[in-house]
C-alpha cells in the first residue's frame, strides 16, 4: 500500500470508527443516517484489451499501468461505494505526459471506455462528487491524491519478410508481417505476380496469406508485396519488396514457374 493509499485508508477508517462510536453511544446527531455516516468514495480500476504479437486477443487483469503497443482498448471503472441516496457526478480526464495542462479527453460517466491509438505516455484520473441535500462528498478527499493510471504506448515498427514456403510442413507456411511489429494502427498489404496481377490482400497487421489463389497453392517463383501502413507515432510505411516462394520440401526436385499463379 503506497503513502497515498495509506492516508486515504486512515481517513476512511477514522470516519467509520467515529460513526460507529456515535451510534453505539446514542450520540448520532438527529437526521444523520447510516449511509451518510459511511464514507462515500470510489475505488477506480482499469482493464486493458489488445492483440499480442501472435495475433491472440488478450485482456489483462485490472492494473494501474499499461505499457505496450497500440491499439489498446481500456475500460476505466469508478466503482463507487456507500453512495445510495446521493446524486453522483463523475469526471474522467486523460492527459498527455508532454502537456498535462491540456486535457485530451473529458468524460462525465461512471465508466470510461477509450482506445489508445497514439504513441506516448498518458495519465488517466477520476474526480467524483456525491451530493445529497446540502451534503457534498468529494473523491478524492481534499489533501489526498486519487488514483492515477499510466498508459505508455510504444513507437511503431514494421517489417515484412522476403519469402515463405507454403508447403504445409509446419514451418514458415504463411506470409505475414514479422512478429516484431509494434503499434501499427492501419495496415493494408497486397500480393502481385510479376505481371502486376493482384493475387491477394489483407487489412490486419496480424493477418497472413497462405500462398493459395482460388484454392490452389501458387507455384515457386518471385512475387511482390506492397504494404501501406501507419504507426501510432504517425509514421507512414510504404513497403515494396520481392517475395520468394519455395513450395518444395527439402530433398524434392522441381522447377520454378517464373511467378505465375
Q: Which residues form runs of ≥5 with pLDDT under 50? A: 1-25, 32-36, 254-259
Beta-strand fraction estimate: 35-45%
Strand tally, please? 19
CATH topology of the largest domain: the name is Immunoglobulin-like
Kindly, what is the distance between the CA atoms of the first and last residues, rounded to a whole number of angstroms?
Answer: 63 Å
* Element pattern in H and E: HHEEEEEEEEEEEEEEEEEEE
Q: Compute the average pLDDT.
A: 85
The Rg value, from CA coordinates, equals: 28 Å
Count of discrete domains = 2
CATH architecture of the largest domain: Sandwich
What level of helicity do the residues show?
10-25%
> What is the CATH C level class of the largest domain, in words?
Mainly Beta
Shape by Cα distribution: elongated
Output the number of helix runs.
Answer: 2
Q: How is the biggest beta sheet arranged?
A: 6 strands, mixed
SS-based structural class? mainly beta
Amino acid at each position: 500500500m503506497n503513502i497515498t493509499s495509506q492516508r486515504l485508508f486512515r481517513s476512511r477508517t477514522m470516519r467509520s470508527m467515529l460513526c460507529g462510536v456515535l451510534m453505539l453511544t446514542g450520540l448520532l446527531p438527529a437526521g444523520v443516517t447510516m449511509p451518510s455516516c459511511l464514507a462515500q468514495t470510489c475505488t477506480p480500476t482499469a482493464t486493458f484489451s489488445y492483440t499480442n504479437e501472435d495475433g491472440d486477443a488478450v485482456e489483462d487483469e485490472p492494473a494501474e499501468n499499461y505499457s505496450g503497443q497500440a491499439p489498446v482498448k481500456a475500460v476505466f471503472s469508478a466503482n463507487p461505494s456507500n453512495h445510495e441516496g446521493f446524486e453522483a457526478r463523475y469526471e474522467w480526464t486523460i492527459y498527455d505526459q508532454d502537456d498535462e495542462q491540456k486535457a485530451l479527453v473529458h468524460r462525465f460517466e461512471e465508466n470510461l471506455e477509450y482506445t489508445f491509438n497514439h504513441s506516448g505516455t498518458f495519465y488517466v484520473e477520476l474526480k467524483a462528487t456525491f451530493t445529497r441535500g446540502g451534503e457534498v462528498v468529494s473523491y478524492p478527499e481534499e489533501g489526498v491524491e486519487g488514483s492515477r493510471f499510466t498508459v505508455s504506448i510504444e513507437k511503431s515498427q514494421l517489417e515484412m519478410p522476403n519469402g515463405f514456403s507454403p508447403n504445409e510442413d509446419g514451418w514458415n507456411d504463411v506470409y505475414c508481417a514479422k512478429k516484431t511489429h509494434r503499434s501499427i494502427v492501419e495496415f493494408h498489404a497486397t500480393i502481385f505476380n510479376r505481371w502486376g496481377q493482384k493475387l491477394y490482400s489483407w487489412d490486419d497487421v496480424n493477418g497472413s496469406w497462405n500462398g493459395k489463389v482460388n484454392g490452389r497453392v501458387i507455384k515457386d517463383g518471385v512475387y511482390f508485396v506492397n504494404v501501406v501502413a501507419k504507426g501510432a507515432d504517425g509514421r507512414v510505411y510504404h513497403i515494396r519488396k520481392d517475395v520468394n516462394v519455395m513450395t518444395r520440401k527439402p530433398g524434392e526436385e522441381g522447377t520454378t514457374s517464373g511467378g505465375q499463379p
